[in-house]
Amino acid sequence: QVQLVESGGGVVQPGRSLRLSCAASQFTFSDYAMHWVRQAPGKGLEWVAIISFSGNQEYYADSVKGRFTISRDNSKNTLYLQMNSLRPDDTALYYCARAITTPDYWGQGTLVTVSS
Amino acid sequence: QSALTQPRSVSGSPGQSVTISCTGSSSDVGDYNYVSWYQQHPGKPPKLMIFDVSKRPSGVPDRFSGSKSGNTASLTISGLQADDEGDYHCCSYAGRYTVFGGGTKVTVL
Description:
The complex is a heterodimer of chains A (about 120) and B (about 110).
Chain A: E1 3-7, E2 10-12, E3 18-25, E4 34-39, E5 45-51, E6 58-60, E7 68-73, E8 78-83, E9 92-100, E10 102-106, E11 110-114
Parallel strand pairs in A: 2-11
Antiparallel strand pairs in A: 1-3, 3-8, 4-5, 4-9, 5-6, 7-8, 9-10, 9-11
Chain B: E1 9-12, E2 18-23, E3 35-40, E4 47-50, E5 64-69, E6 72-77, E7 86-93, E8 98-100, E9 104-108
Parallel strand pairs in B: 1-9
Antiparallel strand pairs in B: 2-6, 3-4, 3-7, 5-6, 7-8, 7-9
């Protein structure tokens, strides 16, 4: 069964940085593009970013463009999200998800809280 | 990158059918046959119920069906059951981005 385990969340002050990780297993990680999707408390899902299977293409939501960077290490079966210049409205549960164009399998999420 | 539009809530009695709409634009739903639907129970991650507009992953009951007409996709749940209660999210591929709807709360009366 596909497994995706996010880590790296926590409480951070506005303007600071945080890096999330997503460890993938039980599938060939290097064959799939990967998404990051977030969900603010009590709200709907918001797409954040996608990276191609090889890592040479990345696309971002307008709300995070220029602040967040998605990357991957296929040798470690791990996906990353570097988040800089964090704002209170970035507070959310961050999910990584495997891509079949849109997401299919999702992790359990890691909570990021941006607060002073 | 505007969010897709879903009704805030729908409800039905056990055994009835409910349909959730998901309206986008000619840049997303209308341009690609890559619409997915997810079920989400409280405190859980989303679960894929429909992909590529109308395909069901293995293990998803055939009570769940998807369709699309123009810029609007729809999810129909037939023979409503208590466990179907939860939030449902639509999602569309749109080339250089992916977009979700605001979510619909399904209540089983």
